[in-house]
Task: inverse folding
């Protein structure tokens, strides 16, 4: 079964916003076994919306349309839908009551503009939007299903999860789709692909493998399609285990878990505390760790030592090491790690020192030369990263590599 | 003049990637006065690409198509273009030489797959891609201009900036478009709109104002369209100055400058050094400041004091203040700021302490209660932020607000 997506809004065409709705909807539809045939973005114009509806109705039996449902003059989807369907508008009293009580909760009266949102095409089946004023609408028209949702992401997501996906699944989906994602870090896509090629070649035809690379990480996603959920799940799990065994410790988890979540869980489980000492990442490792709720249970703090003076003063890196080896060196980064370990008094420490770029490189230490150290009270391990020339990418890449080295350090030594 | 955009790739339809190319292209085309009529995303299938080309050629005279130009079997745009145009393929020797020397620089031989990238439609006009192997291609077909580019963002952007936009501008654009963006922070969209309503109402019809909000910031973009560049520029500048005078110190710069750039420039100009003491932002302020090249000239370091112990130990926040007022309080955040100022020995310090969420709130201090302090050796100013419930948004919002308070502090006191 195939679907098309129409997104309505001038703000998409002029690039004021990136259309993230379509990608999310594509993922969700794909996960229940509905393929997206086309995504079409058009502006806030009556005739453009009708043209888009006419076009995609020649392609697929399911059409999802988002946007253009707000209370202002440039919201034209309802009128366009009515014209496309060849029906009139009526005043929907339940929608009026819903919007009125929505505003009562906010302590405001309903405006005329919002009253106008209650005029709906006569053949509508209403999908209840509990997140905002605009209605979700379903139409059955000449053997097509047309579903209209607001463009506000959390309203659209609410309607998709509570109304649209259950409806589509029970009416149109015969095959069951099962995904399993293996999260890896530290190995490139082509190395991983070569490692697991024999396993992927042995996949039965109803299983597929996708490689999804990011900076320093690759997600391996197995997708199975079939009739029997239990046997599909077993099959996918078996292959995931086989791949994990082949790939080894590059695997850090499953199903879109983040490295920083894995680290939080490992540290809390093993009762370990953590600090960081950062130079070129400028606090980005600490910031990533603390995006996760509950990180205060194990993460104690950091010293961001951007200048050499602070490396000496706060991390107790000996001045003669800095003079002899430079700030970007194995010796310095190890001294930074053991320094912060003692100063903040934690079980584990991560330290980073490098040249993020675009300037500051030299022939021996070009831009992208970055040292990472992981330490506990008895062991300190340092790793050299050779990154590229782009400052922001280098920082993000280093954060991912450092978090992965920390994860492997904990798994190895505790 | 209108253009359409086609993006080719299964990864877009299944939501594996968000199509950010179209938004960027829409912005760039808009900036030179070309409106985007439609954005169409289709999968990696020969007949789908041809169908998309046929469709958009009925709509606009300019068609930009990205993706499907790689060296693998699922890259089908060249074959589809040739069939759509009704022409054959030929081996383009200069493209072969370009790709060969590209690989020579990388120290690798050219593969058969990359040789296949040298077969191009006979009517092609080549646009030189200096960032990768896939060619940029321009076709003149039945009064239409069709331009094909790789989907890799930096290759597409290179071709747009160096080949496509100059070509379109000199051939299709009669009106000149001038933009001026006024960057503001600390005031909401509706407050700003009310402040400058009389000025915007006095705009002549060829000037337009757009409000582009982000967390804690709003960009005000004036766009002028006309024939005479010098007078348009003067007019836009005049209105920008008038708006700046009305809005006051919420304006921090022009034309998409970042707050962290403004701060770097201010600090370097006034020879000021900076440190941060961060609790709930976990290093995100330091990380933002150090995304800017050259930040080591003024930014010395930070103490990320996630635990109260570290606030006492490294920032010298008196234990009785923490006991009496709690970590999230005006007194504590002020003590953190003056603490880091002394410890790292800088002219200026920023400190933050708050409850980022989702847990940790109380009736008196709900999630989103965040204190920011800015200090120098004689003055310490604290501000209370009341943010929302979303941890990541709260952190980003706090970073923007703190940077803006720092900017205003420098402008006021130096």
Result:
């Amino acid at each position: 079964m195939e679907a098309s997506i129409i997104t309505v809004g001038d703000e998409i065409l002029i690039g004021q916003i990136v259309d993230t709705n379509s990608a999310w909807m594509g993922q969700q539809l794909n996960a229940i076994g509905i393929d997206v045939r086309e995504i079409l973005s058009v502006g806030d114009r009556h005739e453009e919306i009708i043209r888009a509806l006419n076009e995609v109705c020649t392609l697929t039996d399911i059409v999802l349309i988002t946007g253009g449902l707000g209370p202002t003059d440039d919201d034209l989807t309802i009128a366009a839908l009515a014209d496309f369907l060849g029906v009139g508008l009526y005043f929907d009293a339940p929608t009026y009551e819903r919007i009125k009580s929505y505003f009562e909760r906010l302590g405001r009266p309903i405006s005329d503009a919002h009253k106008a949102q209650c005029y709906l095409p006569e053949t509508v089946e209403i999908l209840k939007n509990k997140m905002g004023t605009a209605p979700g609408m379903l139409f059955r028209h000449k053997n097509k299903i047309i579903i209209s949702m607001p463009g506000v992401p959390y309203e659209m997501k609410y309607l998709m999860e509570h109304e649209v996906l259950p409806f589509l699944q029970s009416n149109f989906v015969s095959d069951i789709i099962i995904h399993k994602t293996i999260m890896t870090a530290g190995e490139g896509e082509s190395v991983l692909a070569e490692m697991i090629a024999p396993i992927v070649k042995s996949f039965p035809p109803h299983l597929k493998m996708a490689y999804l690379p990011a900076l320093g990480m690759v997600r391996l996603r197995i997708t199975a399609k079939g009739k029997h959920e239990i046997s599909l799940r077993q099959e996918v799990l078996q292959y995931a285990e086989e791949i994990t065994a082949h790939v080894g410790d590059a695997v850090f988890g499953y199903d879109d878990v983040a490295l920083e979540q894995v680290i939080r869980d490992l540290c809390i489980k093993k009762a370990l505390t953590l600090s960081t000492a950062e130079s070129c990442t400028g606090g980005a490792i600490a910031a990533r760790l603390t995006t996760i709720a509950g990180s205060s249970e194990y993460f104690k703090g950091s010293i961001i030592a951007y200048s050499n003076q602070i490396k000496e003063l706060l991390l107790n890196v000996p001045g003669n090491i800095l003079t002899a080896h430079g700030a970007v060196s194995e010796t310095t980064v190890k001294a930074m790690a053991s320094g912060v370990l003692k100063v903040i008094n934690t079980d584990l420490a991560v330290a980073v020192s490098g040249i993020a770029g675009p300037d500051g490189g030299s022939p021996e230490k070009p831009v992208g030369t970055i040292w990472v150290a992981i330490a506990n009270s008895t062991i300190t391990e340092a790793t050299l990263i050779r990154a590229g020339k782009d400052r922001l990418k280098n920082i993000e890449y280093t954060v991912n590599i450092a978090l992965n080295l920390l994860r492997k350090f904990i798994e190895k030594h505790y």
Observations:
- The two ends of chain A are 49 Å apart (CA to CA).
- Residues 391-413 of chain A form the longest helix (23 residues).
- The CA atoms of residues 85 and 141 of chain A lie 7 Å apart.
